[in-house]
Every structure is written in C-alpha cells, then in structure tokens.
Amino acid sequence: MVRASGAKGTCVKGSFTPSAEAAGLSKAPHLARTVPVTARFSMGGSNPTISDKTKAVTRGFSMRLEDTEGDLVFVFISAPVFGAKSPEQLLNGIQLRLPGPDGKADTDKIKAFAEANPETTRQSAWLNARPVPASFAGVDYWGVHAYTLTNAAGEVRVAKLKFIAAAGQLGLTEEELKSKETSFYADELMGRLAKAPASFDLVAILGEPGDPVNDVTAMWPEESRKQVKLGTLAIVSMAPDATCDANTFDPVVNLPDGITGPANDPMFEIRSPAYAISLSRRAN
Ligand code: HEM
C-alpha cells in the first residue's frame, strides 16, 4: 500500500538554522539552534504514478526537525489554502468524484457542489492560475493552518507559516512542459543538490484581529501582514525512500512548547488519526 495522500515523493536530508528573531516569537528548541532535518517532497493525492506535470495538484513538503526532546513536524503544501474546511465537506467532495456504475463521476453533481461550496474551489483556482513548478525547490509552501507561537516571556502571536524558495518561483512554460518526462522532479533535485543546497526561508505571517484561524480554505491578505523570518532550511542531499517511509509526518502530535495548532480548526485534529491509519495500512 502507498500513502493515502502524497503517494509519490522524494525523501531528502538537510538542516534548519533559526534566525536571530525566531526566539522573539517562539521558545521551541527547534527555533533556538541548528537542527538536522529529514524531509519529503511529494505530489498531492493517492496515485503513486501521477505525472509530475499535473497542474491542479499541490506539491507537498513534509519534514521532521529533529531534536533530542522530540521532533517538530511540519506538513506544508504549495498553496495557501486547503480544498475543504470541514471533514464532512472533504468527504462529500471525495465521494462525489468516485465513478458511478457507468465508470464516470457525475459532472453535474460536481458542478453543483462547487457552486454550493465555493471555498472548496480556491485551491485549484490558485494552482491553475500558476505554471507547473519546474522543481520541488522552485515553489513556495504554506502550513495552511493558523499556529499559535509563544515566546519565553509568554507573549503569544497567531501566525501562518510559509517556506519561501530561495530559487524563486520556477515555472515551466507549456512548451517546456511538453519536453518533460512524466517523472522529472527527483532527477532535477538530484542535479540541483549536486551543485548547491536547496534553501527555503521559513517566515511567520503574523495574524491580525479578524483573520480567520479555524478555516483552512480562507486566505489571509499576507502582503499586508507583518512577516518575520524564523530561519533557513537547507536541503543538502537525497535520502533513501525507506528513511521517510518508516514513519508518517503527523503535524498534530508532539508539537513542542512554543508552537500549538489551532484549537477550533476541525481539519487540524482529524489529521492525526488519518495519518496513523494510512501508516498502519501501508506498513502491512
Ligand atoms: C489541512 C491541510 C492539509 C495539508 C496541508 C496536507 C498535506 C499533506 C502532505 C504534504 C502529505 C504527504 C506526507 C508525506 O510526504 O509523507 C499528506 C499526507 C496525508 N494526508 Fe494530508 N494534508 C492536509 C489535510 C489532511 C486531512 C484533513 C486529512 C484527512 C482527514 C489528510 C490525510 C492525509 C493522509 C492519510 C496522508 C498520508 C499519511 C501517510 O501515510 O504517511 N490530510 N498530507
């Protein structure tokens, strides 16, 4: 069995080095000194042979910032929003797309669902408005949920987290896309890392009163929000699949002191059991 989502991916290694400002926002030990990182880039969805050229699918970036007191797990995607704000909406959207007795999904029902639930279309609209990324290291990734950061003085800020690619947004033109193989990301990354690390800046986008904190389909106006650099992630080498496959990247459990997930986001808590079930099925 493969992962229920992010089924196709590439495991990598690197390190995270916090910025001088990070401690001002969070007392997490992972934001206080350089820590080793095991990470995995992936294609969204449960298809392990999905083409890397697929546009309307998020690229995923999951990672474990390793510390003797426990790992900090982040699971990010290449869009600022998720495609459903509640478990019911997610399930309804998935079930609608299942093929009927004629082997096809009911397109009228899919259209009606999108009209009745417009927030579920924001993620695909975001992806369709942008080119297919030329590299896993050439696109930004968002943590999507609103996290609460607490520093050593007990000061609290709500923030969304984002990894900004040092390489910039590397998109493929339609012409370039045609000449690409179905699977080109792993080789591209290997070639890139042979020359230099692939870096990302982790920034905290600070929320202001009224910014939604429990709806992963709602976008914050991040250009007008204060952004604080928390550190730099440097991906330095490829790693065997087994290094990433032995465990799951569960972003809910074991968050360190200094970082908590959203209290009332119905999509946050359900992730933990879903990731555990997927891990148990693919381990058997
Ligand atoms: C809300 C924002 C979400 C984001 C950003 C997200 C992102 C991701 C990513 C990037 C992966 C690949 C992990 C890897 O490389 O190993 C993944 C895996 C997975 N996701 Fe999500 N996801 C979200 C919500 C959910 C929800 C609501 C569910 C189900 C209720 C879910 C179920 C899963 C499962 C079952 C896996 C496979 C885990 C494994 O086998 O290790 N995700 N997700």
Automatic annotation (TrEMBL):
Q: Which PROSITE patterns match?
A: CATALASE_3 (PS51402)
> What InterPro entries would the database entry show?
Catalase, Catalase_core, Catalase_sf, Catalase_SrpA-type_pred
- Residues recorded as binding heme, renumbered to this chain, are 275
Q: What Gene Ontology molecular function terms does this protein carry?
A: catalase activity; heme binding; metal ion binding
Q: Keyword Heme, does the record have it?
A: yes
Highest taxon, organism lineage: Bacteria
Q: For the Catalase core domain, which residue ranges apply?
A: 1-284
Biological process, per Gene Ontology: hydrogen peroxide catabolic process; response to hydrogen peroxide
**Keyword flag Transmembrane helix:** no
Q: What is its EC number?
A: 1.11.1.6
Which keywords annotate this record?
Heme, Iron, Metal-binding, Oxidoreductase, Peroxidase
Q: Which SMART domains match?
A: Catalase
Q: Which Pfam families match?
A: Catalase (PF00199)
Q: Which GO cellular component terms, listed alphabetically, does the Swiss-Prot or TrEMBL entry include?
A: cytoplasm
Annotated family? Belongs to the catalase family.
> PANTHER family from the entry?
CATALASE
Q: Which protein is depicted?
A: catalase
